[in-house]
Amino acid sequence: MAANVGRRARWWAQRSVSGTGGLDWIGSVAIAATLGVAALTIVGTSLGPSADAETNDRLTLLAWWTLAAALVVMVVRVTAARTSSSPSMSPLRTAAAVLGLGVLVLAVTWTVDPTGLWPGIATSDLVLGALVAVALVAAWSRRSGVGRLSPILMTAVVLAFVIPALIQTPATIRDPYHFAFTGDEMASVAAGDFPLSTYIPQYANLLGFIPALPIAILGNSMWLVVLFLVGLQVIAFTCVIFLPLSVLPRRSFALVTAVAVIPSVAVGTGSGSATTYFAAVPLRVVLPVVAILATYRFVSSRGQGRLPDHWAIIGLGLLLGVTALNNPDFGLPAAAVCTMVLLATGPWELVVRRTLTLGCAALAVFVGYTLLGALTGNSVDWSYWLAFQTKFGSDGTMAEPMASFGLHVAFAALFVTTLAVGVGLMVRRRAASVLGRTGLMMTLAGGWSLLALAYFTGRSLTPTLVAGYAFLVGMCVATMLPLMAVGYRTLRSSARAKGRDATWIAIAFGAVALVGTLSFFGRVPAPSKMLEPLTKQQDLGRFTPLGAMLDGLDNVLALPANADVRAAVASGEAAQILPTPSFVDLVAGIRTVSPASSPIYVDLDPLFTELACDRRAAAAPKFFIVEATVSLVLESNPRCASLLDFRAARLSVQGDYRFSIIPVRPVTG
């Protein structure tokens, strides 16, 4: 087996180095992307034409997209002209490279955060990242003697930090606040809701259908939801790790895993991370990364010039439709990038047919979901699909102006560079070559990441950036690893001096991206800290906030004055809009009429308020059980006020919870 691994490594080294001249242009792209993003961000945020922060944010994002498009056109035109960017190291190019590297390092280590929630990457973290990078690269490159054991040792070290960070149980949820939102969405279908009809998810419209049947059969909803979310995280990371490992030797597993996973498990704010948040990893990213992997496999395995496999195209179209329908924030950008790649890499004479096939298959998903809703008595309202984007975006909810400089500059520069370099490699190299396949995965990763930044602009908080895009940063840098290896091997094997200095610039930018990504290692909690709660909890299946609320509710219902409410609950004639409403429905048997995953959304917009009251009419309960703050919102809505008898409402306080029990007016006429 060891001999086979050695032969595979030698084959990869020879194949990747062969014919890889002219990599010097990559340094120019990295310089232009870094300096361009920094300049456009400063201009867009400081000198924008509007006092509206969201407008300036969107103009800045549009400028980033324009820069990326310009760089893509540049690398394609240079390739078409069969010329290389100037390999000579002029003083101007040298100065631009030094300035670009300085800007990139400054952005990575930027600690200024108006919210005070992001502590930044300290100098010690950067040093640790550099040491980890050296250790991982050394373990990858040494293939003789004791060096054969290095990949195994480093893999064990990386997994020792990664696996404990992923382990969570209902009692050891490390971000209980956000789990009340994400977990409720996963339990909503099992509680009888139909997304985009009786319920408006914020993160995932379709994923809640998967655990619904196991919950109905086994009944232990909290455990099943947590295991389901952790399982989706494993799928998402596995897909990312597979991309570079499809062209790299297996001994690089530790390096690829560290780059792909560490940014997401690192603590960003308090005790939270992208993996404890659940909304970003996995709900927003799992289907997009599966679609990207499927697209990569299809394009790289078939190559250009062959007739397309129509069944595969139909399957990809269905997958892209599901991805877009599940979450428009991250799913639509992934579907758009995959579609463009599929059209650009197919035979030109079949572009129209492939476009129609993909479009019809994706549209069939939306039509099929509408029919499914109609067959189950749930009328799908497609305005709900973008409800949260409208409320959080154009309506200005949670708006925060983008800073003129910061970590977002490094993120955007990375995404722009990944896309432009990826496209350049795709058009310069054969599709089946190492660099051709690397270009394909970089194009998919960079394009998706760049388009998905639309979610960040308008809510430009650094914690939002870290929690929402750490996964994408790890993915982009992971897809760059084959290119970094090829560039380094090219320099070592080439005796020609021409272009070597320019190629070193590209490697320097790649090294900063690699070290910056691995610097998150300094923010990964010790494995013992992650595993310690498992030894302290008496009941690992109890979600503390839900348990405390239900205990308080039981005390309220036990009051003699609430005997009629207790009887209504027992007979199924009570409804509620409480925190984690779907879990309350599944655990306590009080049906949910909440229009979304949390009562706070009832106060967000009249849309949610009126939908809650409309569901009351359909459920026809005798009592509404809500939080006191929700009661005030409902009372201020004329439609709700006509349906509920607020003058007879009963208020009970139990610990941190203030329950309001509102009698429902009898349905007349």
Describe this structure in words.
Helix content is 63%, strand content 3%. It is globular. With 669 residues, the protein is mostly helical. Strand 4 and strand 5 form a beta hairpin. Strands 2-1-3-5-4 form a five-stranded mixed sheet, sandwiched between helices. The chain is built from 27 helices and five strands. The termini are far apart.
Radius of gyration based on Cα positions: 27 Å
Distance between the termini: 80 Å
Share in β-strands = under 5%
Number of extended strands: 5
Biggest beta-sheet profile: 5 strands, mixed
Mean pLDDT: 87
State the shape.
Answer: globular
Structural class of the helices, strands and pairings?
A: mainly alpha
Low-confidence stretches: 1-21, 303-307
Helix percent reads 55-70%
Number of helices: 27
Oligomer: single chain
Query: Strands across the major sheet, in which order?
Result: 2-1-3-5-4
